[in-house]
Amino acid sequence: MDSLGFLKTRMELGEFNKIARLQNENFNIFLSAYISLCNPAKVLVYTGEKEEAERIKKISLESKEEISMGIKDHTLHFDGINDLARARDQTKFLIPSGVKFDPNLDYIDRDKGLKEVKDLMRNVMAGRTMYVLFFCLGPVNSFFSIPAVQLTDSTYVAHSEMLLYRDGYNEFLNLKEKNRFFRAVHGTGEVTSANVSKNLMDRRIYVDLIDNTTLSVNTQYGGNTLGLKKLAMRLAINLGSKEGWLCEHMFVMGVQGPGGRKTYLTGAYPSACGKTSTSMIPNEKIVGDDICYLRVSSRKVYAVNVEKGMFGIIDGVNAQDDPVLWKVLNNSHEIIFSNILMKEDKSAFWTGSGFPEPGKGINFSGEWQKGKKDEKGNPVLPSHKNARFTLSLDILPNVDENLNNPEGVEIKGFVYGGRDSDTSLPVEEAFSWEHGIITKGASLESETTAATLGKEGKREFNPMSNLDFLSIPIGKYIDNNLKFTRQVDEPPRIFSVNYFIKDKAGKFLNDKVDKAVWIKWMELRCSGGARAIKTPTGYIPDYDTLKRLFQQVLNKNYSPDDYKKQFTIRVIENINKIDRILEVYKYKVPDVPEILFEVLEEQKERLEMFKEKHGEYVSPFELESVDE
């Protein structure tokens, strides 16, 4: 029996006809294989119709994968107490034996890995419904577009992706290259009495670069199960490397400049480092908060948001620091909350919300009351640090009008940021594209957060904030970035930011809202409208410019003392960082472009000379501003 004939025996006629219309044998073979393997009792197909979406959301509530909350269209999902973040150790690439692969990236022999994960997925959907969902990564009808399909038995995953991604059924109907689409398969696995994945020891998240397929099983957390998010990002990095474009872990935003000008920036920060809150700065425009595709066209750099929604960290979101997002989260819009606490009145509570902490409620641990402890005797927080919200960007008042522009938006600046308590300045511009890619992007370090399983506060090497998702060797990835703008007349400027710099007593030197000023300075620099001070590591703002911007943007007086504390150049710390980065690239990363070592050694040399002239800690007031 051929694949289409098999599908007809396993699907209701109306659902089968949706598949048959595609006239795509490659797709039929894929779907047949996983229906046969996972053995669902029923198959439902989502093509983007409103009735299909409402049916899935209704089933999600009936099955209690989601719970209705007090505000209309708000629902709540819980993951298991040990399934609340990306499972790094159980996420691997499937690489054919004999193929050289970067030893820094987690991988397993493809044949062995496929057998292992398929054994775990055999009959995983028995008695359940498989949902077949068609989406498009990037705007539809665009040279950025990549069609994608998700197979899952989770209505939470299905509902989430309906909010996050553009409908793609028509993309499949019009597909010219019949095999150029991404595939994602997810099975929840056996569940506990609380309806969460039970066999976490058998949790697997495998990425097959040969077939552009991601496979996940025995997990529910979105970062492990939303196949079109970070899992498809890994596929896109690999495909982009072959085709000459970039997939990056970046927001895209439009920053308002003088005279009605708008400048588009992209920014890469590790999770929980301020990426979403930066993309949501009041009075600016958001195109996307997480993943973008970048291409060169007409000798300029253009970007699109891969998604049309947001799967954001909610911890710390409050009315003062995040007014736009705060208002949306507390009004009647379609939002899925995950792993927060639902109070007795069915309202939401999360850490840092500004609401008084309740005495009891329901959270990821079940019934919760103040003082509750886990099996190890540790306090159970009312809301997890990695609690999330999922929404469609079109409900945001500050969404950019070019969100779905098939041409994308022209990018004038790249921003790299992370958690760094003692070295990097709040904002700094690189000397050139190569200098920025190497010293700001490829040298990025960040202190770990609750977004990944493991110890918090550990300084980790994380080039371009993309190490967890790289599907090509690190050296090749850096080389791709360096070469990306060779056909560009004016490459985007490159900046670094650090919202987490502290003084010697451990006190943060910036307010959360100060990022709005750093972004405005970057916009001015991209248009040649601001002076700067040259340091051994790049250009920094001069005091007079920042004083004016703080007044204009935040209506806040900015003192010389604050400027001096924040922008004092920490020479020793910067030299130590270069030594750490050089150690990594010399001994742990193969096939690194030689220019990386040259640029880092030159920067170290500048710092050594600077130290001899000015000392180990240098006030910016000792340096002169320049027009460059």
Q: What attributes characterize this protein structure?
A:
nine-stranded mixed sheet; Phosphoenolpyruvate Carboxykinase, domain 1; single chain; 24% strand; 628 residues; globular; Phosphoenolpyruvate Carboxykinase, domain 2; alpha+beta; Phosphoenolpyruvate Carboxykinase, domain 3
Show the helix and strand layout:
Blueprint: H1 3-10, H2 13-20, H3 25-38, E1 42-46, H4 50-62, E2 67-68, E3 74-77, E4 91-95, E5 107-109, H5 110-121, E6 129-137, E7 146-152, H6 155-164, E8 166-167, H7 169-173, E9 182-187, E10 204-208, E11 213-217, H8 222-225, H9 227-243, E12 246-248, E13 251-256, E14 262-268, H10 275-279, E15 285-288, E16 292-297, E17 300-305, E18 309-313, H11 323-329, E19 335-338, E20 341-342, E21 348-349, E22 360-363, E23 366-369, E24 388-392, E25 409-417, E26 427-429, H12 433-441, E27 445-447, E28 459-461, H13 474-483, E29 493-497, H14 515-526, E30 532-535, E31 538-541, H15 543-554, H16 560-567, E32 569-570, H17 571-587, H18 594-614, E33 617-618, E34 625-626
Parallel strand pairs: 1-6, 3-19, 4-5, 4-10, 7-9, 9-11, 14-25, 25-29
Antiparallel strand pairs: 2-3, 6-7, 6-8, 10-11, 12-16, 13-14, 13-15, 16-17, 17-25, 18-24, 19-24, 20-21, 22-23, 26-29, 27-28, 30-31, 30-34, 32-33
